[in-house]
Give the backbone structure.
Amino acid sequence: MEANFERTMDNILSHYEGDRDELINILQEVQEHFRYLPEDSLRRVAEFLKITVNEVYAVATFYALFRLKPCGNKIVRVCRGTACHVRGGADILHTLEKRLGVKPGETTKDMEYTLERVACVGACALAPNIIIDKDTIGLVDSKKLEEVFGDWKRP
Amino acid sequence: MTTVTIDGEQVTVQDNATIIEAAKTINVDIPHLCHFKGLSPSGSCGICIVEIEGERGVSRYCIRQVQEGMKIHTNTQKLRATRKVLVELLMSNHPQGCFTCERNQSCELLDLSSELGIKEIRFDKNAPNEAMDTSSPSIIRDPNKCVLCGRCIRICSEIQSVGVIDLVRRGPELRVSTFMEKGLGNVECINCGQCIHVCPVAAIKEKSSISDVWAAIDAPDKIVVVQEAPAVRVALGEELGLPVGTLVTGKMHAALKKLGFDVVFDTNFSADLTIMEEGTELVSRVKNGGVLPMFTSCCPGWIKFAEHFYPELIPHLSTCKSPQQMFGALAKTYYPKQAGIDPSKIVSVSIMPCTAKKYEAQRPEMHSSGYRDVDYVLTTREIARMIREAGIDFAALQDEPAENLMGAYTGAATIFGATGGVMEAALRTAYKVITGQELANIDILPVRGLKGIRAATIDVGNLKVNVAVAHGLANARQLMEEVKAGKSPYHFIEVMACPGGCVGGGGQPLGFDLSVRSQRGDCLYSEDKALTFRKSHENSAVQKLYKDYLVEPLGEKSHHLLHTEYTPRSEHSLEGMSNLEKFYVQEDDTHGS
């Protein structure tokens, strides 16, 4: 794992020059690999760019896109935009909170699902929507939720 | 040159000057909060707004540069009203507990409120209620009082090149914090406390030991021994209302006796002792081909900095403990032996200009007496608070001496408090050790002053000794990089973390004004000049200590009690830090002599 981490980081950083302007791009690529920003990766990036770890942390916490905690294998986002809201988005979020046993921003104990809320995904015609990783599931109702999450047992 | 009109008056200033600089020439100083002389402009508070003819909206005068023909208004109805709103908004989410706030006599938010004539806060009060960061042994951060001006962030990175705090998260969640919110005690913070000097409110302060010290004084079976650092005697008077640069050595000793300390000694005694050990160490390194350049080790902020950022250069640090810790080790060994008392009854207190000394006293190595060598460290500000609390009329006190046994000192010791002082003191004694003769002209002017880095070559017999002095860690970093690259021409380097040296330490009267710090330093140099003995090896109490107890410098007992070792702390060293913004302008040598 340790050697793997080093190799992955070296690999990612090899595409960059070491200018501080590259910080956000690097963090994005790191997150793509690890699905979050491990603490050691922030240190490694700071060293590479010759800036303080704290500056890296400041940027990583500024953007909602970056996460500093490990997330589940799948990220479930519930759309809380206006169109989804009028078609029951709140109920869907509530149902999922109960089904998964976590609040938005949290991850199930078996690291399978991370639940999040999102403002609008622009698929209002299919409202209400949920998005699992990169797949959008439209016209969600309890039957569809059962199809998706039925096999999963709460740890 | 650029000419602009400010409030109807024509002003000609340098191109690229900011409006704040232009306004200063006609004695206009608009109320502001985030701007701070000596730090880079920020523009985050938005209070110093001006109107510019032909432009919509307002501009922040601390960051806006002048342009030819600009017509600027600094005092209009709209500006006065807007500034009020901005300050009211700041106050609406600031705790309202001014009664019990230790900065209520020096709060810039309160000053702004009074300057702007604010009579009510028209917004809902919504003060946060977050946990304080108490992880550091030296410094407490209270996020609830923070006004997010960012001065602490700028001084930490620009002046000290440490950079352990930054603005994290955003919007209503925005706060000043450390990496992964670990807290100051768990990151590379060196405890120098310069952030305290620039904080406009009480969001950063020292971790106080006042109640512990009162308890020790009140305990009948304890013998409370106290030592005071050189820089305290030129700042305590100032903190208690006397003019800047008033020397109060005698009043300080008298006040401490009045407060109830059982035995009043003086750190200056152990400063002389430090020179005996450190001077001998330098000579031994030079003669025996030891690791050079040797760095001084009196400053605990500097030591932690070196441990974090340059662990590979640790062999360059002198192994000598600081005067505080040398004193501490002797206060529970030599002193009780001489006085015939039980060392376990001794409580050892130090009065320091420094917040990092609180950390140093808690380092696990500092138990060479078999007890904790220094139990409590109070800053200059804390001891002043105790003197006020006890109702002592400080200005009216008659001078009193410290106890001779560990209180006698020479001029070499007292200049420890100013940048360059340790170097000068060490050279005075090293000269004697190497040549066997006394240095004729002992005022070594090239190492004095306020320039960020000062270098000199001193003739010591046939030997040419190259020395350098740095204050402020961004300056020290330059010397460290030279050493690391194998290009350092020096034999001996003095580093003090705080600009100005200890006279500008994190525990001193508040403010970051180098001219004030320089006045305190001058005051130490004049005390030196007025003393009969001005070289550490002439200190009779130190001679007695070697005769009766330690035997010789660098001897076995010295090694055990007066020397220490260091810990590499780096998880990642900020090698080069080339991308760190550097703003610190090296001051000219403004020293009078």
